[in-house]
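Re: [help] complex structure
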Amino acid sequence: MKPFTNRLLGLAAGIAVAFAATSTLAVDLTGAGATFPYPIYAKWAEAYKAKTGVGLNYQPIGSGGGIAQIKAKTVTFGASDKPLQLSDLQASGLTQFPTVIGGVVPVVNIPGVKAGELVLDGKTLADICIGNVKYWDDGAVKRLNPGVNLPHLAVVGVHRSDGSGTNFIFTDYLSKKSPQWASQVGAATAVDWPTGVGAKGNEGVAENVRQANGSIGYVEYAYAKQNHLAYVRMINHDGVPTEPTAAAFQAASARTDWAHAPGFYVVLTDQPGHDAWPIAGATFIIVYKNPADPNAQKEALKFFKWAYENGDSLAESLDYVALPQTTKDDVYKSWQANIVPASLP
Amino acid sequence: MVDAVLTENMAATSRGTALRRFGRSDFRFRALTGTAALLVVVIFVGLIATLVYGAWPAIKAFGFGFLTSTAWNPVTEHFGAFSEIYGTVVSATIAMLIAFPIGIGIAIFLTELCPRSLKRPIGIAIELLAGIPSIVYGIWGLFIFAPFFQQTIQPWLIDAFANVPILSSLFAGPPFGVGIFTAGLILSIMILPFISAVTRDVFETVPHTLKEAAYAIGCTTWEVMWNVVLPYSRAGVVGGAMLALGRALGETMAVTFVIGNSHHINGSLLSPGTTISATIANEFTEALGDLYIPALIELGLVLFGITFIVLAIAQIMLYRLNRLAGGGGK
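Output below.
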């Protein structure tokens, strides 16, 4: 009995020491929120720590949790896939800025239709998701795809069942392009889908689309690219059919007038530009304008400034789309205008 | 045991001191175990209180209509739990209808008919089945079972019952692969080991003399099972079934992958639906808004209520079974 108790005590002591060690090493930078940008924040943090010794403790608990945590002032910054409205920011004394761009790509499984062959516009995509377009040889789809041999096959819609920034970007786009979608369904991280099957995560959507003939779903750009899914070309704001590429997502942000958007409330859907992909959105960081701990926030902004200057290649290696330089400059300007000088990097 | 220790100690101390010392340790033992039991009650009450507190905005906004409304619209913040309750109850019922008879069958085979050399391997296989994490069932269900089901069994079900009045609407197409029926099937595999392992163990507790007496007067194996073993062990069997049903009602990950996650009720069992726990798991992390999170927490409270009702029904069933058996029971 004795030796066992001793071992147990030894183990407990060991665990206590390990905790103490991590808590002295772990640092001032704390953040919580969206899961979508977690991999790139972790990658940036690793590189930043190697360089400066300052680490980041980021908890990917979801956008809602991130907003709640920053409002409760338990973290230095919150992160959300859905930007806060200006009124909400002002009421809480918060400000926000984008970090990286996420893109959403519709993918299909129609026998005989190859990747990039099918072309859709926003209105038709909304009609498909509402259930107005029931078969792939519907007139609306045929009109956009004169050369494509479309079978008389029932449309099966597949959507993300888990609340996600991807849902928000996608439904925001449909709301902009279809008044019926806007009034009947709306835009949110989770909506009341009129038809179709809900699948969990990108992999769930991709798998359901792969299995069901005649299905259409949507996944994050990185997921579509890495898995070579049969993507759809989208007709953008300028009427040009566009391929989903990193450059097309950057183009969506480049032409956007971030500087004059109240509270940086911008969803990069249906943005102008000849080569802009229409279904994109940035993920956001939320901080206080006048934080309780100005030093901690200064360190956090230093980290994001470093990431803007040095983190693009890391972002690209994970198939995130970095912000264009014009947008980064707008962010710096917004910091100067909104955040107290003591907290500026 | 105690007497032995007592006599041993008698040599050194008087009987009175020894008794007092044992009395004190008795008291300490009672306090310790009593606290442990009380802790369960405290945790239970605390959980209910936290759920009610978290769900209060939704309870105030929707009242009892929450239980009967099929709305689930995060954009307009209109929430109702009926389609989630429906999916939870239906998928768990399908699972029980399949797993209960099979599980009892396995237990009967293992205790009465199985050759000794096969007993251990089959028993271990069943217990291993219970140890597989639910996410594995979910992934397997989505990637392997659902496509197989969609291409073979579902079209057959739809065709076979096309002209049968009620069944045709229960098994109406199109075959999605995922759906309420698929979720029920996956759940039945998941709860099967609980039913068979628990019932096997309670069957083992039936005294051999009883069974041998029944065999001696010429009973068949079936008659022994039905008239001797099952009546003797019904409390344990119902207990095992309730444990399994509890898991089926609350199972989250595996169901989320294969149920199709649709908040609309469709009469067909092959159509996508959702359950309470799947909805919470899907939507909690990214839920924003004043009523969305409270509505999700209220769903948790509703699941608590369903589990409570199921347990209450089980108790009533047991009580009536015991009375029917002339209060004999064990």
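The CA atoms of residues 195 and 240 of chain B lie 5 Å apart.
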